[in-house]
Amino acid sequence: MSYPEPRYLGESGEHSGVLRTVATPPDLSMASGTQVHYLGTGDSTNGAFGLYRWEMGPRPSGPSAHFHRTMTESFYVLSGTIRLYNGEKWTDARPGDFLYVPEGGVHAFRNESGEPASMLILFTPGAPREAYFEELADIAGSGRELTPEEWTELYLRHDQYMV
Question: I want to staple 78 with a disulfide (CB 3.0 to 4.6 A). Which of 24, 48, 111, 118 is the partner?
Answer without folding.
Answer: 118
